[in-house]
Amino acid sequence: MNLTRRPRRLRATPQLRALVREGTLSADDFVLPLFVSEKVQGRQPVASMPGVAQLDENALLDEARGAFEAGVRAVILFGIPVVRDEKATQAYAENGVVQRAVRRLKRELPKLIVMTDVCLCEYMSHGHCGVTEFHGDVAHVHNDTSVELLVATALSHAKAGADVVAPSDMMDGRIGAIRSALDAAGFENTILMSYAAKFASAFYGPFRDAAESAPQSGDRRSYQMDAANAREALREVELDIAEGADIVMVKPGLPYLDLVWRIKERFGLPTAVYNVSGEYAMLKAAAANGWLDEKSCVIEQMTAFKRAGADIIITYWARQCAEWLRSS
Ligand code: PBG
Question: For the chain, where are the alpha helices, taking DSSP H only?
C-alpha cells in the first residue's frame, strides 16, 4: 500500500505519543470535596461512596493536609450541622461548622485554596436549597428570600477566610447579589465560582447520603435544570458571567461533556466540571466487582474532562489522582 497519510506513525512509542499528546493532567487541576460534620467523631464512612467519609474538624484537617502533601491545591467544603431549621440559620452562623472549618484550614494550611459550597439544603429542616412553603406535597421554593440567606452565607464564608465561594443553589440573581454584597463588605478579592449549569440529576444520590441533604418531599426540578436543555445552560452561564462569576461550572460531569465544550468555546472563562457522587459510585462499584480497572478508567475520565475544555475538575478522586500522577 502506498498511503500518503499514516496516522499510526505518531502512535508507535510511548515517547512519540507523549510528544503529540494534546493535553496533560496535573494535580493542579483537581479540587477535592470534603464533608465536615458537627455530628461525628473522627471519620464516618459514607456507604455509597467508598473512600469518602464525613469528618470532624480534626479529621478534616488531616484529610486536607494529606491531600495537599499529595499535590492537591484546592478543597471544597460541605457542612453538616447539628441544628437544622426553616431559615437555615447555621448556614450563615459566624461559628457554623463550615465557618469554623475554614478558619482552621486557612490557619494551618495557608497555601491550600479553600472553597466553600454555598447552599442551604444541608441547613434547612426540609432539605430544599431555599426558603420553602409547602402546599400539601408540593414545595414552593421562594427565590428572592432564599437569595438573601445565600448572600449572608457567602459573606460569612468570606469573613472566615474562604478564597472561593461557590453557590450551588440555582436561585436566580444570586451571583450578582453575592458579588455586590462581597464588594460592599471589602471582599472584592473573594472569588466567585458559580454552579452555573447545574442539572436536576439522579447522579447526586450518594452525595445526599453524605451531606444528609435529600429533600423530605418533592424534588429540585423547580430550580435545577432539565437534562434536555443545552441552550438554556448557555443562557444560565451568560447571566452568571454578566453578574460577576469568575469561574463557571457544569454539573454533573460525564453525562454533560457537550456543555463543558460549548461553554468553554463560547465564553472562554475558567470552566469547572463536577464529577459527581453518582459518577464516583458507579465506577467504584464496578471496580469492586472486578469489572473495570479503577485507575485506568479514572485517568481516562479525567483526560476526557480536560479534552472537553475543563480547566478545573472537582472530584472525589482528587487525592488519588494526584498520587497516581506523581508515581507515573
Ligand atoms: C448542594 C449540592 C449538591 C451537590 C453539590 N452541592 C446536591 C444537590 O444539589 O442535591 C452534588 C454533589 C455530588 O453529587 O457529588 N445543593
Answer: 14-20, 57-70, 97-108, 143-160, 174-184, 205-211, 231-243, 257-267, 277-288, 294-308, 318-327
Q: Is residue 2 part of a domain?
A: no
Ligand 1 centre from 118 Cα, in Å?
A: 11
Pocket test for ligand 1, best of 76, 204, 209, 225 (most atoms within 8 A of CB): 204
Show Cβ contacts of residue 258 under 8 Å, excluding neighbours closer than 6 positions. Answer: 230, 308
Tell me the mean pLDDT in the region 229-247. 98
Please check the confidence at residue 212 and state whether its pLDDT lies above 90.
Answer: no
Q: How many domains does the chain have?
A: 1
Q: Is the pLDDT of residue 211 over 90?
A: no
Protein residue whose Cα sits closest to atom 14 of ligand 1? 204
For a substitution probing ligand 1, which of 77, 120, 141, 168 has the most ligand atoms within 8 Å of its CB? Answer: 168
- State residue 179's pLDDT score: 98
Domain containing 162 equals: 24-327
pLDDT tens for each residue of 285-313: 999 999 999 999 999 999 999 999 999 99
* Cell (9 digits) for 218: 418533592
Rounded CA-CA distance 318/73 in Å is 10
Q: Which long-range contacts (CB under 8 A, 24 or more apart) does 178-187 make?
A: 178/118, 178/150, 178/151, 178/154, 179/243, 179/244, 181/151, 181/154, 181/155, 182/154, 182/155, 182/158, 185/155, 185/158, 185/159, 187/155, 187/158, 187/159
Does residue 299 belong to any structural domain of this protein? yes
HSE toward the beta carbon, residue 12, CA cutoff 13 A: 4
CATH of residue 244's domain is: 3.20.20.70
